[in-house]
Design goal:
6-stranded parallel β-sheet
Length: 261
């Protein structure tokens, strides 16, 4: 079989997913190609049409993760819980959906900084599809508390209602162990300083990887935080995604090394 895979979203001209897919195909001993397809939210229905005709599997990025969930015939428990899909697969005319962002995020943080998620007090900036999956991964991995700061109140409310230890604001001041920025770089408001509660031992993760360091990431690094951009999460979630597509174990660290070469 010659696998036809790709990444869909808008914008995707910068996406490194095709490189990851092609590395994964080689490591799995499979034939195939990966391409980018530009689809905005107004044309999200194109996802369903493309699967099975032009693509066998797709990686889904912003702003389509919620819409992709709606087009699935069958979805994983995580996808149902988060209402978010970043991985699509068509088999026998049936469209399957899964979300690998949360587990990929936790794997990336753990391999980079050690077992820091369990019992952590976490702040997540943003409440979109990526944030939903990351919050789910954090809760599943034993984070003690997660505070979500988002501009769309309805999205924040959904996350807060879903988990007992997720809140929309912190009622009691406490030090932040981990802060995660999931807001697209272009949609960020200017900040003059780091968030209250951040300290020198705080880990600051920006899921943006282009540019490699954003103004937000630079601000937290200069404050003294340990920082990570979005490349490790991209690689580790792709390893889980391609394992789901092909049933072949792939190593996120190996994929990340390939990206960094």
């Amino acid at each position: 079989m010659n696998w036809r895979v790709g990444v869909a979203g808008s914008p995707v001209s910068h996406s490194l997913s095709p490189r990851l897919h092609e590395m994964g195909l080689r490591l799995a001993g499979l034939a195939g190609t990966s391409t980018r397809v530009e689809i905005d939210l107004d044309h999200a229905s194109d996802l369903r049409r493309l699967l099975g005709t032009a693509f066998d599997a797709l990686s889904v990025t912003s702003p389509l993760k919620g819409a992709a969930f709606e087009f699935c015939d069958e979805a994983s428990e995580i996808a149902i819980r988060t209402q978010s899909v970043n991985s699509l697969l068509v088999r026998g005319g049936v469209v399957y959906g899964d979300s690998t962002d949360g587990a990929g995020f936790v794997d990336a943080v753990t391999d980079t900084f050690g077992p820091v998620v369990e019992d952590a007090h976490v702040v997540v900036l943003g409440a979109g599809g990526a944030a939903s999956a990351i919050v789910d991964g954090l809760v599943a991995s034993g984070a003690q508390s997660v505070v979500v700061h988002g501009r769309t109140e309805s999205n924040v409310d959904k996350l807060v209602a879903r988990y007992q230890n997720v809140n929309s604001w912190s009622l009691v001041y406490r030090p932040i162990d981990l802060i995660v920025n999931t807001v697209p770089d272009a949609g960020r408001s200017a900040e003059a300083s780091v968030l209250q509660g951040v300290h020198h031992d705080t880990i600051a993760v920006d899921i943006v990887y282009d540019p490699r360091e954003t103004e937000w990431g630079q601000r937290y690094r200069e404050f003294g935080c340990r920082t990570m951009n979005g490349l490790p999460m991209l690689a580790y979630q792709a390893a889980i995604q391609m394992r789901w597509w092909w049933g072949v174990a792939l190593d996120g660290a190996q994929l990340l090394e390939g990206l960094q070469q």
